[in-house]
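Thread amino acids onto this structure.
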């Protein structure tokens, strides 16, 4: 299974350990965005990452998710070495994207409900490592009102351009098979689909989601063998 999974909005140590044990490749923390029930402070972020690295070895990367964060704070997080990836999830100017990406792997999130021209996305994509296509804004995500990702045309266009894309928005164990069949993504991002309530991750739902992913690829492999 080549699919890389990111669990986002992580807060609880038990959930962090479970994510690594399940083989999740990216562990995301929402930092200093108080409007989100998943937000933690920079200090908490450092403590969580230290705990994680001291208690769980694995093939995972830590993603610091920020929303229009002051540059000084971004530089502090980068300088601390705690984040393997910076995810810019607000309205950050392209100059900020370029500055950050010179120092660390950088993802720029785009709200697919906004009207964004393809040439603008292409220019932006050259300034970062990956483009994260989301079904809503950071505020929509905070309110759990972003809905599901449906912009197949945009996703397909970016892939044809050779742009690395992270797919996000409304994923859960029940619909992941459909998403994987439709998009065949390289990387996916899930948060509320593995929660009991906003900000509270469920180990059971995390397990069920990863099992659904494995089942999809297992069934796909069996089908190929039969043909």
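Threaded sequence (227 positions):
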């Amino acid at each position: 299974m080549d699919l890389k999974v990111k669990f986002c909005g992580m807060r609880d140590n038990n959930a962090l350990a479970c994510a690594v044990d399940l083989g999740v490749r990216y562990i995301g923390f929402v930092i200093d965005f108080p409007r989100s029930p998943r937000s933690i402070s920079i200090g908490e972020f450092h403590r969580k990452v230290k705990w994680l690295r001291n208690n769980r070895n694995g093939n995972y990367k830590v993603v610091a998710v920020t929303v229009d964060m002051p540059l000084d704070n971004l530089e502090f997080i980068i300088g601390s070495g705690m984040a393997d990836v910076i995810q810019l999830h607000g309205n950050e100017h392209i100059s900020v994207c370029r500055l950050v990406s010179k120092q660390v792997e950088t993802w720029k999130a785009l709200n697919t409900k906004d009207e964004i021209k393809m040439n603008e996305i292409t220019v932006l994509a050259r300034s970062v490592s990956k483009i994260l296509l989301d079904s809503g804004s950071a505020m929509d995500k905070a309110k759990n009102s972003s809905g599901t990702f449906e912009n197949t045309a945009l996703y397909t266009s970016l892939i044809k351009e050779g742009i690395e894309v992270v797919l996000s928005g409304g994923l859960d164990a029940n619909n992941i098979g459909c998403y994987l069949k439709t998009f065949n993504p390289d990387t996916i991002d899930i948060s509320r689909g593995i929660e009991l309530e906003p900000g509270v991750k469920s180990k059971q739902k995390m397990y069920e989601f990863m099992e659904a992913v494995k089942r999809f690829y297992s069934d796909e492999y069996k089908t190929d063998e039969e043909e």
